[in-house]
Amino acid sequence: MYQVDLNSDLGESFGAYTIGLDSEVIRYVSSVNVACGYHAGDPLVMDRTVALAKAAGVAVGAHPGFPDLMGFGRRNLACSPAEAKAYIQYQMGALGAFAAAQGVRLQHVKPHGALYNMAAKDPALAKAIAEGIAAVDKGVILLGLAGSEMLKAGQAAGLRVASEVFADRAYQADGTLVPRKLPGAVIHDAGEAIARTVRMVTEGKVTAVTGEEVSIRADSICVHGDNPSAVEFVKDIRAALEAEGVTIAPIARIV
After folding, report:
1. Quick one: which of 115, 120, 122, 131 has the most CB atoms within 10 Å?
2. If we measure between CA atoms, which residue out of 214, 218, 204 comes closest to residue 254?
3. CB-side exposure of 107: number of CA atoms within 13 Å?
4. 106, 96 Cβ separation under 8 angstroms
5. Are the CB atoms for 206 and 214 separated by under 8 Å?
6. C-beta atoms surrounding 12 within 10 Å
7. What is the pLDDT of residue 227?
8. Contact status, residue 27 vs residue 239, Cβ threshold 8 Å
9. DSSP secondary structure, 224-237, as one string
């Protein structure tokens, strides 16, 4: 019997700007990654998003990124291991305060954007992130790209780790994501994305953009909620997985 978590990046609105369809998407996922104010989000949005997750019975995780509001955390920044560790702890602390105020425990940490992608390949950066999390709370799960340096570092730091796959992103032959700046990085055909997702969960395989079959572990599936068709897409992915006998559950029940 298969089990998988469905996660989505929420709380990415900021000030007067609303990004994403959080209140709709949250109905179909089992875990949420809440922006912590560095790449997106602000105190009111963070508080509101934690409350939304609590009301929906959905697990809450921190989604820390680079201090890069203008670039939405998607630009590679020069960052020492000491800085990365401090960034992670600062943002965990911020979201953790809102969670504690509402009686919610942080289930996981999932780095955002460029920080996530850089740490997938950079052992020193991955180590700093993992050690930063472990120093704050060893009970928190590190959610990272399947097969990445970040998951290896998490295990070395004594953390539980969960392997994440992406429903609407293309993969390279080494198991990393095709960079967003390249053509074909995002899969826009919902049917294709759903079929690929079901296969990653039930067969542990995905076809790379170059045609190779890549082995992949899927503990959690990221579904994006920041476009008009997101709600229907998330709903359809969940339905397709359940039709294959897959149980949707929070990460903590899977790893």
Report:
1. 115
2. 218
3. 24
4. yes
5. yes
6. 25
7. 67
8. no
9. ---STTHHHHHHHH
Tokens, residue 162: 């969960």
Question: Does the predicted TM-score (pTM) go above 0.90?
Answer: yes
Distance CA 53, CA 124 (A): 33
Question: Which positions ≥6 away from 173 have C-beta within 8 Å?
Answer: 208, 210, 212, 214
List the chain pLDDT tens, one digit each, 255 residues.
Answer: 899 999 999 999 999 999 989 999 999 999 999 999 999 999 999 999 999 999 999 999 999 999 999 999 999 999 999 999 999 999 999 999 999 999 999 999 999 999 999 999 999 999 999 999 999 999 999 999 999 999 999 999 999 999 999 998 999 999 989 988 888 898 989 999 999 999 999 999 999 999 999 999 999 999 987 666 788 999 999 999 999 999 999 999 999
Q: Provide the token pair at 138.
A: 């060893």
Lookup: tokens for 9: 């990046």
Phi, psi for residue 248 in degrees, rounded to 5: -90, 125
The CA distances from residue 139 to 60, 142, 159, in Å, are: 13, 10, 7
Q: Which residue has the tokens 């209140």?
A: 23
Hey, CA dihedral for 199, 156, 154, 57, is it positive or negative? positive
Strands 205-207 and 213-215: antiparallel
Measuring CA to CA, how many Å separate 5 from each of 39, 67, 131?
24, 28, 24
